[in-house]
Design brief:
- Keywords: Membrane, Transmembrane, Transmembrane helix.
- This is Proline-rich transmembrane protein 2.
- Belongs to the CD225/Dispanin family.
- Its main location: membrane.
- This protein starts with 71 loop residues before the first helix and ends with a helix.
- By secondary structure, it is mainly α.
- Helix 1 runs antiparallel to helix 2.
């Protein structure tokens, strides 16, 4: 038909050197043998499942029909108590619980929410005890003088 196939032009500046020439000895990228992938898939014939977290099948509700609570308001209120390291940890557990629920990890969100609740209550009760002890101590000094 008179039309010849056009061959693709290649740039003389582009090198077509294989990346295998730059590999370290041993044939692997870092010189160590490839130990396996943690990409989230189950390899054919693999005796163990993936080590990455998989989202729960139930992401919005738990077995009783409600989503797990993160107790963020209680953790924020506990930050006003004078038991500083405990209330900051309670706040961080509450935020981690909310993040776990958004990622679909319902069991982790429930566990972290329960930890946030316990630490918030301990912080509030401990703060009340410290404030009561400080008031009693100061009133005792005022009454003596």
């Amino acid at each position: 038909n008179g039309v010849a196939p056009v061959m693709g032009e290649t740039s003389p500046t582009v090198s077509s050197v294989s990346p295998k020439l730059y590999a370290k000895p041993g044939g692997h990228h870092n010189g160590r043998p490839h130990l396996g992938s943690r990409s989230g898939s189950l390899a054919a014939g693999s005796p163990r499942p993936s080590l990455t977290r998989q989202p729960s099948a139930i992401t919005e509700v738990t077995g009783d029909g409600s989503k797990p609570r993160d107790y963020l308001i209680l953790a924020i209120l506990s930050c006003f108590c004078p038991l500083v390291p405990i209330n900051i940890v309670a706040l961080s557990f509450s935020v981690m619980s909310r993040n776990s629920l958004q990622q679909g990890n319902v069991d982790g969100a429930r566990r972290l929410g329960r930890n946030a609740l316990v630490l918030s209550v301990v912080s509030i009760l401990g703060g009340i005890a410290i404030i009561a002890a400080a008031i009693a101590f100061n009133w005792g000094r005022i009454l003596k003088s």
